[in-house]
């Protein structure tokens, strides 16, 4: 008798060959990732053309699918897990997170409802408590586990929108925004683009933003913030995406509290400073805000994807994100979907819980402080080289570097990227082209920094040589 597709699938489960094969590839990948070229070679990118094919008519052997993925996919990854990837603000992933994610993969849980995943719900409740304690937030704060800070910002601002309109006797879920009372939005000129995007999605209108100037580190200037009221949402930053600078929460949140203003904090990578003894002065006063967005996949180094929305006004958050249906089973325990825009989503809490359990308070402290020290080391070593300039105070994990002109900076950055010994991107900093170094990996060693600084030096020398021919 001919074997059906279903027979084959049961066979894969029974003999475990493809799982072992994938596991072996993963182990090889991990073994080499710390020494490998940080950016894929031209050749491996070129070879991705193998994927340009029509959807196959017939089933492909599972073994061959995994094999193709490994042979052509692995070399075309960026080595973000390693110690010399400084692009964007990209965290690595702790071994414990990868291992837990691997186990969780086979569970394939969706923690929308307690009945759908008791373990997912349990871990979400536990981590919610841990986060509140770690950041010293109000005890009734609630947490939603989302894909990243983009979504977390959206949720925080949705809660704010719900509450402000509700206080004006306007149920936004029912009535929408047409003829709704006005909501004011105040934020800094250097607010992250995902904040601006969320304002757009929520129908609050990007044109309505009242922009506030920043100082030379990119911090909002407290004296320049307009008079606030109870219909205002003020959005602040824990960690400027270029400089890593923190807004002055102590002064600003205090003031906002008096006027009943909703303060939302975009703390994608920087909120974690609050968990580090030597750095928590940076987030002082942040607990007086109303909502906070933060990533696990950046500073905490959980695997992708892992974002968290924390909200001191649980009712506003769950009302803004609520849904129901005749088949929904509400539990007296936690039902995750009331805290996120999605119903189904993966149980990323598995990796988040495992990472926090593994590190403990002291481990979180040690890991993040080390990133801060490596950033300082980088700044120190690079400023010894003639032709490089540091453009920011190194308060957290970000270093902004420039050369003698925009043109040179651009060329040197392109040379660094071509050398592939480390990787970083460019940005604009007060109308100047700059290179943006983000130290956000548990795996970055002192030696990685020195090696990367060497690469910067080589790249500058290359630029000089080419400029002279
Ligand atoms: C990365 C980042 C975001 C976006 O977060 P995602 O996790 O990529 O969605 C928002 N704000 C700041 C300051 C960031 O650094």
UniProtKB/TrEMBL annotation:
InterPro entries linked: Aromatic_deC (IPR010977), PyrdxlP-dep_de-COase (IPR002129), PyrdxlP-dep_Trfase (IPR015424), PyrdxlP-dep_Trfase_major (IPR015421), PyrdxlP-dep_Trfase_small (IPR015422)
Keyword Heme: no
Similarity comment text for this entry: Belongs to the group II decarboxylase family.
Keywords for the protein's UniProt record, in alphabetical order: Aminotransferase, Decarboxylase, Lyase, Pyridoxal phosphate, Transferase
Cofactor(s) listed in the protein's UniProt record: pyridoxal 5'-phosphate
Name recorded for this polypeptide: Aminotransferase class V-fold PLP-dependent enzyme
Organism: Flavivirga jejuensis
Alphabetized Gene3D superfamilies for the sequence: Aspartate Aminotransferase, domain 1, Type I PLP-dependent aspartate aminotransferase-like (Major domain)
A Pfam family this chain is assigned to: Pyridoxal_deC
Signal peptide per UniProt: none
């Amino acid at each position: 008798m001919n074997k059906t597709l279903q027979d084959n699938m049961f066979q894969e489960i029974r003999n475990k060959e493809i799982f072992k094969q994938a596991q072996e590839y993963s182990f090889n990948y991990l073994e080499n990732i710390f020494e490998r070229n940080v950016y894929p070679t031209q050749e491996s990118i070129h070879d991705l053309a193998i994927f340009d094919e029509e959807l196959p008519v017939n089933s492909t052997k599972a073994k061959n699918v995994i094999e193709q993925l490994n042979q052509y996919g692995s070399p075309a990854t960026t080595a973000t897990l390693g110690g010399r990837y400084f692009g964007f603000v990209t965290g690595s992933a702790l071994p414990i997170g990868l291992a837990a994610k691997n186990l969780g993969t086979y569970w394939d849980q969706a923690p929308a409802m307690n009945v759908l995943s008791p373990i997912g719900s349990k871990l979400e409740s536990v981590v919610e408590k841990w986060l509140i304690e770690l950041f010293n937030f109000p005890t009734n704060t609630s947490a939603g586990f989302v894909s990243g800070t983009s979504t977390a910002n959206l949720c925080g601002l949705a809660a704010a929108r719900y509450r402000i309109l509700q206080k004006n006797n306007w149920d936004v879920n029912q009535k929408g925004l047409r003829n709704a009372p006005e909501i004011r939005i105040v934020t800094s000129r250097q607010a992250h683009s995902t904040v601006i995007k969320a304002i757009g999605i929520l129908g609050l209108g990007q044109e309505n933003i009242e922009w506030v100037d920043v100082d030379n580190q990119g911090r909002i200037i407290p004296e320049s913030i307009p008079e606030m009221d109870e219909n205002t949402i003020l959005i602040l930053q824990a960690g400027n995406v270029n400089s890593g600078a923190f807004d002055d929460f102590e002064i600003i949140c205090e003031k906002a509290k008096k006027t009943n203003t909703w303060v939302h904090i975009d703390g994608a990578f920087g909120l974690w400073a609050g968990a580090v003894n030597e750095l928590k002065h940076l987030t002082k006063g942040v607990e007086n805000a109303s909502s906070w967005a933060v990533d696990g996949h950046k500073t905490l180094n959980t695997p992708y994807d892992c974002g968290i929305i924390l909200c001191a006004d649980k009712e506003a958050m769950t009302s803004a994100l609520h849904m129901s249906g005749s088949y929904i089973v509400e539990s007296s325990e936690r039902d995750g979907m009331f805290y996120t825009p999605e119903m189904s989503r993966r149980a990323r809490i598995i990796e988040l819980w495992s990472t926090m359990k593994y590190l403990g308070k002291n481990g979180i402290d040690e890991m993040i402080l080390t990133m801060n020290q490596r950033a300082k080391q980088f700044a120190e070593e690079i400023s010894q080289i003639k032709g490089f300039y540091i453009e920011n105070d190194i308060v957290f994990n970000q270093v902004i570097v420039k050369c003698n002109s925009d043109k040179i900076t651009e060329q040197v950055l392109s040379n660094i990227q071509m050398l592939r010994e480390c990787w970083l991107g460019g940005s604009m900093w007060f109308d100047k082209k700059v290179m943006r170094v983000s130290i956000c990996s548990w795996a970055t060693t002192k030696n990685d920094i020195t090696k990367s600084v060497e690469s910067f030096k080589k790249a500058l020398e290359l630029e000089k040589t080419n400029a002279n021919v």
